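Please check our next protein.
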Amino acid sequence: MSLVRFLPTPSDRMGIIWSLLAVQRAIVLEYGPAGTTHYSMGLYGGLGLRFQNRLFTTHMSEDDVVMGDVTRLEEAIIELDKSYAPKVIFVVASSVTAVIGTDIKGVCRYMQNEVKAKLVAFEQGGFRGDYSVGLAETYKLAYHYVHKNFMHKTVHAGEAYGPESIFQAITDLHADRIGHGYHLFSPELCGPSVKDPQQYIERLIRHIADSRTTIEVCITSNMQTNPAIGDVKNHAFGKMLANNLSEPPSRLSD
């Protein structure tokens, strides 16, 4: 075994569980070996997250892996539902169940009739990227639920990142309102996938204006977090007004 100086970057699976532990009246159930979940608990405990009676594992035997038996998962779902009466049980794949291709979504689908809690499956298993990918997957699911239930949605974007983050907030998270949006006019912050940054920005501006997506402008905050602005006259607020973008009366607050 080789020696390493630092712990490896947490996977998407770790990011998913990390996010889900913040959901109130919810339980996270990992379908996999007990050691995998216990290792994760060390990290979450170090971050100050409370996981007692909120993070559980089914454990798995060799027979479960070889035969694809999901009895442990079915029994765990029923037991947690009866013992803790959560509103939601998030069923998360471990690396082992992701490798063998366990249909966790399918299990949640037929087990939904057996329990009162809402069952939500995550099948990533730690193979789709680092923790930031897991965070994105979790928030996309949460915002999709909010969108389906006709709730209003505010997303902070365009402050630390460029125009593409604003586009993602609108298209992936269905944002009605953008917090900050300062870098909407920053073509230099577009990634390599954007072939014509200026045209991309112009089309994004028109979409925001035509859809009346509100931009919550926070001038004082932007001046503090981005000293390069220098003077308030250099703030993008003037460009927003010139392009007929929608800003709320509280535009100077943050």
